[in-house]
User: Fold these one by one.
Assistant:
Number 1:
Amino acid sequence: MSPADTVGAVAFALVALWPLLKGRRAMLLGQAVSALAFGVHYLLLRAHTGAAMTALSLVQGLAVLPAGRSGWRTVVFAATVPAMLTLVGVTWHGWSSLCAAVGLLLSTAGRWHGTALGLRLGFLGSGVAWICHDVITGSPYGLAADVLCMATLVIGAVRESRHSRKLASAQRSPA
């Protein structure tokens, strides 16, 4: 097994777990760890734009991790968008670069949203772009992780929705 395959397998395992975590903070932490692993995987594949975009997603995830939005976190988070444009230009490699950039933009919208559902929706859209990137760059681990991640994002959203409905029903019921 090559180093890229080994790291890809670890990254896949991490992606399999984070979407099932409860709450926005736990999801962001889990996603950050998996982004770090996939960044290394993409570097080993020489998919430099993908590696750069996952590095920026790590910065974004850490910037929005604390509750509430402070000025410095907003600046750090917002700075990742022009950084993305710069890095895409520097690492440009055609369609794979475009797909990685679109994936980051959609996940950016999800991370900026203040709810777990908003995060899940942004990442669902992002997953489509990353699937295209992974097909182009030849990353079976990335492809499998993105498909699995999208499925578990839906499972997590359904689970959370059921829990919310149960809470609402319990609050309406007379004691």
Number 2:
Amino acid sequence: MLSAINLNRSWSDYKKQWVVPFAFCLLAFPWGAIASPLLVVMVYYIPCIYYREGKALTLKDALGFLGENFSRILIAGVLQAVVMSIGFLLLLVPGMLLSFATPLIISRIVNTDKSGVECVKGGIKEFFGGLKTKRMWVFVLIQIIIGALVSLASVITCGLGSFVAIPLGAFSIYGYMSQNNLGNKPNNILPSS
């Protein structure tokens, strides 16, 4: 299963693209609580867009995507945060499960023209529907492993490693999704297998 996470490919893809996620990480710090979450979340959108387009993005491309999809990203982000908060209040486990739907929601925003609300509803529905399959549980486990590795790299380097570890983790998740045909089709994000 760990061989399913192709770190060589993710690292290679990250090296082609490292400037844009790094710029969003740096831009996030001085802008305070309002703009920081939006700038940091773009670190997760960039790999998804990269795998959709098949080419490295420029900062102009990423900012253009943000501008064109600002309301969808904002609505989906706020709705996902509210839903996850309610889930965490309901004995922690529902919130944790809902957090694993985030890559599917981001993939829906990147790959469809649906509203932010529809993307959140569709991503959550797809996730919980997919929990009946081994494929979805493998996807959850991969997210846990990548999250643990990102956290470890960040802690060991006193936070400095997060500038590389977080975007590399995002490239690993979306690289896995791309390689396993997860998130590439707007209407069938996680086909049953």
Number 3:
Amino acid sequence: MTQCRNIPADPMKNTGNIYCFTVMRIIFEKDNRMKFRYVRIQGRELARNTKYAKGIFSMCWQLIQNDVMEEEDADLFREIDSWFAEELPFPPQCKRQENVVCFFKTENTDAMMKMIKPAMWLLDKYHHPFYVVYTNYPGEIVYEDEYQVAVKAGEDLIFEDVQQSWSPDDKGIDPDESENSV
């Protein structure tokens, strides 16, 4: 199994978070059996309206609105946001603020990922955690164009109990009776 390590951040190269996912993407792309069709950059925090992890644009705008981002960096993000607004169609569901989230299509993502990497660098610079999620199953697609899909969000959250350990060292231990239980 490949282990990802944080690599010192450099705005012109991959940051620690990006490096890890770039390595994993290269591994998966070389394996012809595993081709992901969609990618989304998202944070840990959930959006109240979608009950889904906030996307990269929402996270960057929040850093600007909360006066966390320096003006020069805010200007950089505004340029990135303008490029996407000019180059990508704006899904009507997003215009109407429906309960949807968007994923980029990996087959047409080269230019978009090149433009989004500086925004990822900004998140990294301001220590805002994010994940690059690759999937073939983003959810129920309600909009699709050449570059992206919009999927219904927050409708199928499933909360399950903690399952019994599958570790041979913990065989037979009930999670409710362990030392770490509250």
Number 4:
Amino acid sequence: MRKYGVAAALALLIVLGLAGCPKGSASRSISGQISVTRDGQSQPISEAQVRVWPKDPSKKAEPFEYEAVQNLRGVTLTRGSGQFEVGSLTSAETHAEYPILKGWTYVVEVEVAGYYITQAEFAYTGGQAWVEVAIEEKPMDVLDTSGGVKDNEKKLERGAVRKE
């Protein structure tokens, strides 16, 4: 009886070990750095929303037949260091999770308040890709050269309404 208990425990450890082992697609990721140049210095941007999606397959692209590729997105926020990492793609339609597709051109879109929305494209060939995106700050000072607010000469005047 004890012999079967040890064998069952060993089998359970092997199954758990295999479940914990990374598969070929698990080591796929898209990481990067989001920054802005101020006074000639590159500075990281934290709390920027980063969206990643596959755009075009190359000739050697991994096939994807589960659902429409345009439904797939990877979304994350940058850390305080301006770095981000996307390890999988999620379907906007079915909410299923898929690995990063090898051999596709990807779009990285960065959005953060006070900066222009920026997109960059790159070819993902597998493994861990690194992408650096420089964003541009929106001008905060607005100069009004219109002369200010003027009276509306065509405004409606109050009057009496008569019913006959």
